[in-house]
Amino acid sequence: MSSAPPVLEVRDLCLRFHTDQGTVEALDGVNLRVLPGEILGLVGESGCGKTATARAILGVVPAPPGEITGGRILFGGEDLLRLPERELARRIRGRAITLIPQDTLGALNPVFPLRTQLLDVLRWHPPEGDGGLWGLLRRYGRRWRRQALAQILALLRQVQLPDPEGALAKYPHEFSGGQRQRLLIAMALLPNPVLVIADEPTTALDVTIQAQILRLLRRLVKERGTSVLFITHDLGVVARLCDRVTVMYAGQEVETAPTAALFTRPAHPYTQQLLASLPDHRKEELEGIPGVVPSLIDPPRGCRFHTRCSQARPECALTRPPERLLAPGHTVRCHLY
Ligand SMILES: Nc1ncnc2c1ncn2[C@@H]1O[C@H](COP(=O)(O)OP(=O)(O)OP(=O)(O)O)[C@@H](O)[C@H]1O
Ligand SMILES: [Mg+2]
User: Fold this and answer.
1) d(Cα 169, Cα 161) in Å, to the nearest integer?
2) Angle at 244 between CA 240 and CA 247, to 5 degrees
């Protein structure tokens, strides 16, 4: 376990969406930390607030209807929630923190060839810092362009895109889904970020391509020492890719552990049920978790899982359990402990 300070620390993050149906309490005191050079998995069922957490970190929560009502997002000693939008755009988003999105076609501009789009990433988010107006002017020069293209080609080779030179002249729709995913990994690594957030990047791909791309991503970030916040609902992906995992349920984090510990000694009843509902070829039937995810408009008080928990006690409906340390790096929020 690394004792270096975390790269990112989200503390008690609260986020609401004001809708015509009522106020959606999407995040209710979310806590997570990403350590230097590690891949943290953020898992949970659809609607539990994974993307909302990522958006809050990147400073792109649509407001309205979104409103961050509390918490801190500490990154390199700064609270990103207190940082002016100008600073976020200049130093953080797309530069120190980049995103690998799920929608590969939507993330690329259809009217420009790849060369233009990749040069623009480096032009606007140069790894060495932007250097003000003079820096920008320099980045329209020929010498800069030649060096930048060399850097881009090297990265395209690293993500194993076939024919990198030829690829630069192509448009986004001329690549396959798997190739576009490789491109977006290259694009996210190009500014040499401290943290990459990946939001379900491989869910649209078939399993063999998915496995290749995850292996590639893991190798590249480990080589560079880049930290990753990897969002997924797929525990199989977590097992293969992540060093540690934080499990979310209905807008709250319930358990955090090193990946092996989470799979062998899951502590929270929700985590246990999530693992029990993994498809198992030895079992006849698929087990699900009884009940449904509660509405986040007027959600259950206390531990939000208590309405579906077979071990719930009266206090579970009253107060949210504090974080308990079970083993080094393994914490749970449950009144049973
Ligand atoms: N723009 C919005 N307006 C209103 N409600 C929203 C908005 N965006 C998200 N929500 C709500 O916030 C909650 C969390 O959504 P979020 O997209 O973070 O879930 P998720 O964990 O990423 O799910 P999935 O696995 O399906 O991507 C959900 O209840 C969702 O309906
Ligand atoms: Mg999502």
Assistant:
1) 13
2) 100
Residue by residue, DSSP assigns 62-87 as -TTTEEEEEEEEEETTEEGGGS-HHH
Q: Is the CB of 51 under 6 A from ligand 1?
A: yes
Ligand 1, pocket-test mutation among 30, 43, 48, 203, most atoms within 8 A of CB = 48
| Residues in Cβ contact with 155 at an 8 Å cutoff, skipping those fewer than 6 apart | 186, 189, 190
In a domain, 171, yes or no: yes
Q: pLDDT tens, 60-88?
A: 999 899 999 999 999 998 999 999 999 99
Cβ–ligand 1 contact at 11 (below 6 Å): no
Q: How far is the CA of 37 from the centre of ligand 2 (A)?
A: 24
Q: Is residue 70 part of a domain?
A: no
Through-space distance between the first and last CA atoms of the chain, rounded to whole angstroms: 23
Q: pLDDT tens digit string along 169-212?
A: 999 999 998 999 999 999 999 999 999 999 988 877 888 888 99
Q: Which of 324, 300, 303 is nearest to 312 (CA)?
A: 303
H/E stretch holding 100: strand 97-100
- Rounded to an integer, what distance in angstroms lies between the CA atom of residue 154 and that of residue 288? 46
Residue 234 counted as domain residue: no
**Domain range enclosing 163:** 109-190
Q: Structurally, how many domains does the chain consist of?
A: 1
Closest listed ligand to the CA of 46:
1
Whether this prediction's pTM lies above 0.90 is answered by yes
Residue 120 lies in a domain: yes
Cis status of the peptide bond prior to 164, with omega within 30 of 0: no
